[in-house]
Specification:
Elements (H helix, E strand, L loop, with lengths): L13 E14 L2 E14 L3 E5 L6 H8 L8 E10 L2 E2 L5 H7 L4 E4 L3 H4 L6 H13 L3 H14 L5 H4 L9 H13 L5 E5 L7 H18 L2 E6 L2 H4 L5 E6 L2 E7 H6 L4 H8 L50 E4 L2 E3 L3 E2 L4 E2 L4
Parallel strand pairs: 3-8, 3-9, 6-7, 7-8
Antiparallel strand pairs: 1-2, 1-4, 4-5, 9-10, 10-12, 11-12, 13-14
Helix pairs in contact: 4-5, 5-7
């Protein structure tokens, strides 16, 4: 008998390859430099956690890939995003519709407003099935019942004719997940899907996503501002700040050995169950950067306890400092000295 070979995340085939995405918003007050050269790979069957505070560019990056931003005022000024041999950035709107909901599912942030209040749950579930998979009405309704059952909605056949207001917040989010999964997408992008829910429902949704990932083998991008949420879910974590990626590593490496001051600040602000005694949580002093000017220095420098002259003059690029561990910082925190750069 041959040996079983375990394939780690780094060795899996790449399903989504994103390079140098830059997105601007042209407003009356000026140009907002929201996303500034984001690059990443998503592997087959991988869950990539994307974390950072509000305004860091997480959602705008992912919505840029699927052209879900209003254009204008938004403009994608550069970048490529290859998925199944096609560059998503260059697709026209008709071809993009075939990708959105069909090959790539998207769960929006707020289940209260993402569902149409005047259409039944059944209609909203069956619409994508009829458009993308060509099902007739009976086939689509049968599949809709299966999907509601899959995401744990009791008596699914009886709920198809109900409207969103007849569901709780947690149930509405389950419906949103069912819609995103309806056409068996290869990639699922979840944009802070548990933010508006209470802690108990949040835990149920996280367990649901873990189970569905095991059963369906999807690749998932999970966007959140909470590092605690992705700790037990993600294979890799990408930390964003001010429209840049500041650190990226395997989940255990990132939590065990954070190398960017912002990542450390986020982790130190989380309560710890293994703490021997109650300690005051740390906070990150200062305010997020203004995005109305194109950054030329490190965006975190004004808030960083390790900042020195170079940080205020030049923005560091991501550099690999260990096995699949990248950081964009001029300062070596562990060494207590400036980081050598080529």
């Amino acid at each position: 008998m041959g040996e079983t070979v375990t394939v780690n995340a780094a060795q899996r085939p790449t399903i989504l390859d994103v390079k140098d995405i830059r997105t601007r918003f042209h407003t009356q007050d000026g140009t907002v430099f929201a996303v500034n050269g984001i690059s990443f790979e998503l592997k087959e069957g991988e869950l990539l956690g994307v974390v950072g505070e509000s305004g860091s560019g997480k959602s705008v990056t992912m919505m840029s890939l699927l052209k879900l931003l209003p254009m204008p005022p938004a403009e994608i000024v550069s970048g490529t995003a290859f998925f199944e041999g096609k560059d998503l950035i260059k697709l026209d709107i008709d071809k993009m519709r075939n990708v959105r909901g069909g090959r790539i599912g998207f769960i929006f942030q707020d289940p209260m407003t993402s569902l149409n209040p005047v259409l039944t749950i059944g209609y909203q579930l069956t619409e994508s099935l009829r458009v993308h998979l060509g099902m007739n009405r009976a086939q689509a309704r049968k599949r809709a019942v299966e999907l509601l059952q899959l995401v744990g909605i009791p008596s699914p056949g009886d709920r198809l004719n109900d409207y969103p207001h007849q569901f709780s917040g947690g149930m509405r989010q389950r419906v949103m997940i069912a819609i995103a999964l309806s056409c068996d997408p290869k990639v699922l992008i979840a944009d802070e899907p548990t933010t508006a829910l209470d802690v108990t429902i949040q835990a149920q949704i996280l367990e649901l996503v873990k189970r569905l990932r095991q059963e369906l083998g999807m690749s998932i991008v999970w966007i959140t501002h909470d590092l605690g949420v992705v700790a037990g879910m993600a294979d890799r974590v990408m930390v964003m700040y001010g429209g840049f990626v500041v650190e990226r590593a395997a989940v255990k490496e990132l939590y065990g050995n954070p190398q960017h001051p912002y990542t450390r600040g986020l982790l130190n602000s989380l309560p710890r169950l293994d703490a021997e005694r109650a300690e005051r949580l740390e906070n990150i002093e200062g305010q997020p950067p203004s995005l109305f000017s194109e950054p030329t220095a490190c965006p975190f420098a004004p808030r960083c306890p390790y900042a020195f002259e170079r940080c205020l003059e030049e923005n560091p690029l991501l550099e690999e400092i260990g096995c699949s561990h990248e950081v964009a910082c001029w300062w070596d925190i562990d060494g207590g000295v400036p980081r050598e750069r080529r």
